[in-house]
Amino acid sequence: MPLSTTQQKTMASAIQDYDFPMVAYDFVSDNVLNDFVNYQELERFIQSQLTSDVLSEVRDGLSNVLYWGYATSKGRQSHRVELFRSSVTETQLRSFMAHLSSREVNLQAVKQCKLPQLSNISFVSKVLMFLDPERFVTLDLQLRKLKQAETENLFRGLKDQRTSLRITKVNENFYRQWCETCRYMAESYFVDIGARAVDVERGIFSLVRRGEIDFVAGCLASA
Asked: What are the b/e assignments for 6-24, b being 16+ CB within 10 Å?
């Protein structure tokens, strides 16, 4: 059963109203960057760092994935970023760069690089999302709430621990399905507002944060 008109309107509104901070950091000038025009500009900025041939820029790009991801957790934001920057090695960064240039990028590929602070699905999926927001989406811990929805939905298949989402074969298959679901919804229902897979995920994330668990579960069941 396709999404109803009401479901489509509510989802479209949530996509357009997504308000997670558009923020990154300039580690060269030591300044916060918060004047991005839109999310596409932020994505391009971090993507250009992640795909750079310059080791220090790749380090900055991965640092910015953490900086953005912890944007609403100020106490943890600087701590996590500094832990990453002080402990990541040249070998780990070069391994990440090699994976981008030589093979299909996925959760397991990034995990194999053994990047500090970037080992579980929540943040590895953020790396993938910034590399290709048309294709990859974020799988945030908050979305686990959908497992408790009354309506049967794909999140029932997510295997998690109390504080993390581990990269396992089961969860990697789930993440692939999650990305495909968001892409399908974007292409089927939200082309008119220019939504991509990542925008659908962001709309769903916003609705889950507002406590609209059963509504989202119903949308996922219909999709």
From this structure: ebbebbbebbeebeeebbb
Note down pLDDT in tens along the chain; length 223 residues: 699 999 999 999 999 999 999 999 999 999 999 999 999 999 999 999 999 999 999 999 999 999 999 999 878 999 999 999 999 999 999 999 999 887 678 999 999 999 999 999 999 999 999 999 999 999 988 898 998 888 888 888 887 766 678 899 989 999 999 999 999 999 999 999 999 999 999 999 999 999 999 999 999 988 7
Domain boundaries, the chain: 5-18+136-222, 24-131
pTM above 0.90, yes or no: yes
Distance CA 97, CA 214 (A): 41
